[in-house]
Amino acid sequence: MARVGEVTVPVRPVFVGLSVDQRFPTSESAPEPTHEMREASAKVRAWIVTTAHSVEEHVPDGRWKSLALTALEEALMWANKAIYNEKRAE
After folding, report:
1. Burial zone of 81 (CB within 10 Å; 0-12 exposed, 13-18 middle, 19+ buried)
2. CB contact set of 35 (below 8 Å; sequence gap of 6+)
3. Where are the domains of the chain?
4. Sign of the CA dihedral 60, 61, 66, 67?
5. For residue 9, which phi and psi values (nearest 5 degrees)?
């Protein structure tokens, strides 16, 4: 367990012991996503899109804004990887 702010979260190595094929699945090799996975992904995406709109509205154009938006894209990518690869890592 690890503390993140006021919350205690379980810690588990996600990709320890996975083969290369398991770490880099394709749409054909991956199992069908569950309803819960799709719902979690949609919730995370909604939060990130809301945040991206706020960045678009309040941050001046330029390199820093571009980096902020790229970081949000990356956050969504990693969140989805964690959501959709959860069953393979167990």
Report:
1. middle
2. none
3. 33-90
4. negative
5. -120, 145
